[in-house]
Amino acid sequence: MTLFSLAKKNIKGNFNHYFVYFVTLVFSMVIYYTFAALQHSENIQESIELSDTMRFMFGVSSVILILFVAVFVLYSNSFFTRKRKKEVGLYAILGLRKKTIAKMLFYENLMMGIIALVIGIILGTLLSKLFAMILVKLMGSTTEVDFGISAMAIIQTVIVFMVIILFTSVQGYRLIYRFKLIELFHAEKKGEPIPKVSPISAVIGVVLLVGSYWLILRPLPDDWTTEYLLRNDGVAFLALVIGTHLFFRSVTVYLLKLSQRNKSRYYRGTKLIETSQLLYRIRGNARTFTVIALLSAATISFFGATYGGYYSNEKSAKEVVPFSYSFLSKGPEFDSQVENIIEADDQHPIQAQLEIPVIQIEGTLSFQLDYDINPVKLISASTFNQAAKALNRDETVSLTGDEAAVIQPRFTEYTEATFKGESVTLQLDRGSRQLRLDHMVEGNVLPFDYPDFYVVVSHDVFAEIARQEAPLTYNVYEVENETTAQATSEKVNKLVGNDFQVSSSFYTEYKKGKEGNALTLFIYGFLGLVFLAATGSIIYFKQLTEANEATGHYEILRKIGVSKRDIRRSVKKQSLFVFGLPLTVGILHSCVILYFISNFISDLIGVNLMVPILTAIAVFIIIYTVYYAWTVNTYNRIVNR
Amino acid sequence: MKTVVEAKQIKKVYGSKGNVFSALEDIDLTVMEGEFVGIMGPSGAGKTTLLNILATIDEPTSGDIVIDGINVTKMTEEQLSAFRRDKLGFLFQDYHLLDTLTVEENVILPLALAKMNVKELERRVDEVADTFGIRDILKKYPYQISGGQKQRTAASRAIISNPSLILADEPTGALDSKSATDLLECLKDLNEHDKATILMVTHDAYAASYCNRVLFIKDGNIFTELVKGERSRKAFFNKVLDVLSALGGGAHDVI
Ligand SMILES: Nc1ncnc2c1ncn2[C@@H]1O[C@H](COP(=O)(O)OP(=O)(O)O)[C@@H](O)[C@H]1O
Ligand SMILES: [Mg+2]
């Protein structure tokens, strides 16, 4: 028998073990291929506005993907090799030289890698078109995707994965040399002691977890700095990682031991067997569980946050650029030129149009505010109310005399209490003028421009100041179906130029946000899926190794009168624990992290993250359920023959 | 007196067409309540096969088995599991203890599976712990105790549910002579005082001499039977040796 045919036989024989690994590997190849194809596709690039960003992001995420896949493949391989120590030992006894055995394992790995690669690329070319369509749909483009086979992507995928496969094959080759023959026969240690747990480390674990949650969840002080944030959340992150590890290492062991105290529950049916099996295994799984819980927490959080951004894009675009079009008046000729363009668009008829005079003036506040206010921009209350009405907003102001209202500067969390009882002093040509800041309103009426410090003043005061400081006039238009006004927006943008830090037209801002969010959503989504698949597959291996070691155990149980059905039920319960525990911890972590993110990232302030979080969690649970079902089935087939 | 085991025309054929091997030809066997029956024979005679069939772990190719008045050949896997749990106790050469459980938990297992209430369950453990002298090691794990202690643990587990029949396959096979004697004394006690019915496979004449009756199997058939009667154990032991040498091939198995 040649080495090749022996290797081939081995793959067939171990197919159960390899299958899930194989599927996961193929899946990550498909995703990598898709990323590469999108990165190189001229067609897609042309149809979207963020093509440079997109190219860059796909480049970066491909690298992340590759690093992750490399770790996954390496881990899985060392796992396979260790699992097969005994087999290797047997070959050695039969007189095969280490070199020959190592070569055989090398071929096995190589063969499997190449088969996976071929399938991965075939599926990749088929599926990447579908994935590209998803991306284009998410971005809100209407363009047809003409997305053929990408030679560049194929070459890139082949090269990258061949390197990984070769590298891991060599690792496998070297692993054999490090085995000592005597060890090979003790690969499955018998009678390992049940883990002892020191209550101290369990307590430390709980304290660290609670502490890190507290650090993450406590509100930011008003005068927080980046340094504060780095310190606070750096510590929180460290505590979370160590706490999670201790949780799996000690706290769960401790809880399981505690559950043994309740004899009437513990000595009932197969509970005894399950608890002791889990106790016996949990130490060895602690590190894997930690990695999985943290990884799934990160994936859910990022996915949730991005999805939240995507979900709320229209709302935040509307906050950044309230009117469909806004521009600084530059004389009747220019203004009517712009107006003609807007009027010419039959698809998007004008609903409202008005002029917003704004006075820009230096001013000082009666108190210390951590925000740059100059030049202060004044708007008359009557104009503000008209604009609010045109935008279908409820919030209006009514001001008399020296009363004034601050419009909450974007990206801040100031409240009315911040300004209550304070005043702003404006430097006019003829002396200064003090206004009382009695109110605060949310929602500007002009596009964002830093510093974003607008003060609404009464009609009379505005008229009075306007006599000394000539106001600038902005023309604003609100049109129907503004989310689709692409052509007109482009024309207006060209003519108007850079009146604001953001775009003059709502559509442009909306579209930019949507594409950016769609892109991150797409990338996180697929990266997340690969992470998930890989972690699911690792749990699967762990469980199967365990199943193989526990066949004797279950045989004894069957002999002394446990039915196959009860064994199946017991396998289900244990697998549920093994899949459910890290997932639950991951979900808890991600809820805390998302809460933090949604408070911190201003785009997400006030966004309801419920739908995105639930979606992300649901996807996680569905995928894990598939791996869980796979595991239970194979496990059961092994122990319940 | 009640009949505990009644096996009729048990046949067991291994393998499929073209390559069949008949492990049990045609075995009839009856065991009465309170008997301590030994099954002897050379290696490969079919002793384990017979015991496993009686234990409902294996199925006969043909034949009927009635244990405690119940025909076990017609039962489903589910029913058989419950039957084994409630009616049978097992002892194996390699102990068959679960290494993730303490000695106490191993012993309790059959009762826990039967969902007996904790008070009663703890009372029973207390009882058998003395019978087999394992009280001091109850909290230990199997890897922490000796082979003799392991087998006594297994024996405790076998009897804790007061089974109608205790089945033992070479229970002394892996033990030193002191531990073997201890175990056999315990089994004898159990048989004499508690009227436990025991069926024990062995190829060791010394172990067989503890039985009331010994069946000899050769090539899948019952070769002969020896009843202890009023004989002393020493005399019975010599008698067993005689039969073994007549049987041929088995003599070298004797210690
Ligand atoms: N599962 C099996 N498949 C095929 N042959 C078997 C099987 N189990 C036992 N045998 C054969 O049946 C015969 C009796 O075996 P066994 O009952 O184990 O003998 P022993 O009397 O030593 O316990 C032996 O020849 C053995 O090789
Ligand atoms: Mg045998």
From TrEMBL, chain A:
InterPro entries: ABC-4_Integral_Memb_Prot, ABC3_permease_C, ABC_permease_BceB-typ
Residues passing through the membrane, by range: 18-36, 56-76, 105-127, 147-176, 197-216, 236-256, 289-310, 521-541, 575-597, 609-630
Family: Belongs to the ABC-4 integral membrane protein family.
Protein name per the record: Putative ABC transport system permease protein
Record membrane topology: Multi-pass membrane protein
Gene Ontology annotations for the cellular component aspect, listed alphabetically: plasma membrane
Entry keywords, A to Z: Cell membrane, Membrane, Transmembrane, Transmembrane helix, Transport
Keyword Ubl conjugation on entry: no
Residue stretches making up the ABC3 transporter permease C-terminal domain: 60-177, 526-627
Any GO BP annotation: transmembrane transport
Protein localization: Cell membrane
Species of the source: Melghirimyces thermohalophilus
Automatic annotation (TrEMBL), chain B:
PROSITE patterns: ABC_TRANSPORTER_2
GO cellular component: membrane protein complex
SMART domains tied to this protein: AAA
Domain of life of the organism encoding this protein: Bacteria
Domain ABC transporter: 5-244
Annotated transmembrane regions: none
Keyword Nucleotide-binding among UniProt keywords: yes
Family annotation (SUPFAM superfamilies): P-loop containing nucleoside triphosphate hydrolases
Keyword terms, alphabetized: ATP-binding, Nucleotide-binding, Transport
CDD domains membership: ABC_MJ0796_LolCDE_FtsE
Gene3D superfamilies: P-loop containing nucleotide triphosphate hydrolases
GO molecular function: ATP binding; ATP hydrolysis activity; transmembrane transporter activity
Keyword Thylakoid on entry: no
Record-stated family: Belongs to the ABC transporter superfamily.
Protein known as: Putative ABC transport system ATP-binding protein
